[in-house]
Specification:
The complex is a heterodimer of chains A (114) and B (114). With 114 residues, chain A is an all-beta fold. Chain A is 0% helix and 53% strand. In chain A, β5 and β6 form a beta hairpin. The mean pLDDT of chain A is 94. With 114 residues, chain B is mainly beta. Chain B is globular. The chains are: A mainly beta (114), B mainly beta (114).
Chain lengths: 114, 114
């Protein structure tokens, strides 16, 4: 069974630009969550989508947005990039049902903002 | 109230020794407490998880101890091996972990010396 796939794996942007990251969940998983990982703040929850609806949202500004498609694939977008947005962005998928708490993480998209 | 505090930040253990990582939480609504293991260049992977109705859970060399009254939980790694060298994250969430919104601790970098 294929794992969670994230693309691109690495990207470099400049301040003010926008970026779109993509995530393909494990087949059959309906929940996709996004996390930002930085050395200073650790792993921080961005948002979660379940059946194309945003079910949970973390404490990030509106520049961070996401969506989920009918095949459960998800994208996240960051507009007007700031230097502080440099981070590893991790996507995780799960069944999204009660009693099935395991999140399966991808290897991440490493974003560098110059 | 949303925080999960993890200690120590780093830990060095000799091969065969016991590694102990501690976490504390404030929000009594949390009802799912997983531990994730992350190797460099990889996404986190679930190691073991516990719900507050039990005080201890063991899987192989890994044990979670849970103290509901103290709002603390810890990971014990028995007979630590160099292959256990990784960063460990405790986390907490609601609804039995059915949703992808985990609150992570800041992580503990474990080094097991041969």
């Amino acid at each position: 069974k294929a794992g969670v796939t994230q693309t691109p794996r690495y990207l470099i942007k400049t301040r003010g630009q926008q970026v779109t990251l993509s995530c393909s969940p494990i087949s059959g998983h309906r929940s996709v969550s996004w996390y930002q990982q930085t050395p200073g703040q650790g792993l921080q929850f961005l948002f979660e989508y379940f059946s194309e609806t945003q079910r949970n949202k973390g404490n990030f500004p509106g520049r961070f947005s996401g969506r989920q498609f009918s095949n459960s694939r998800s994208e996240m977008n960051v507009s007007t990039l700031e230097l502080g947005d440099s981070a590893l962005y991790l996507c995780a998928s799960s069944l999204g049902r009660s009693g099935t708490g395991e999140l399966f993480f991808g290897e991440g998209s490493r974003l560098t903002v110059l | 109230q949303q925080q999960v505090k993890q200690s120590p930040q780093s830990l060095i253990v000799q091969k065969g020794g016991i590694s102990i990582i501690n976490c504390a939480y404030e929000n009594t609504a949390f009802d799912y407490f997983p531990w994730y293991q992350q190797f460099p260049g990889k996404g986190p992977a679930l190691l073991i998880a516990i719900r507050p109705d039990v005080s201890e859970k063991k899987e192989g060399r890994f044990t979670i101890s849970f103290n509901k009254s103290a709002k603390q939980f810890s990971l014990h790694i028995m007979d630590s091996q160099p292959g256990d060298s990784a960063t460990y994250f405790c986390a907490a969430s609601y609804d039995g972990g059915s949703q992808g919104n985990l609150i992570f601790g800041k992580g503990t970098k474990l080094s097991v010396k041969p």
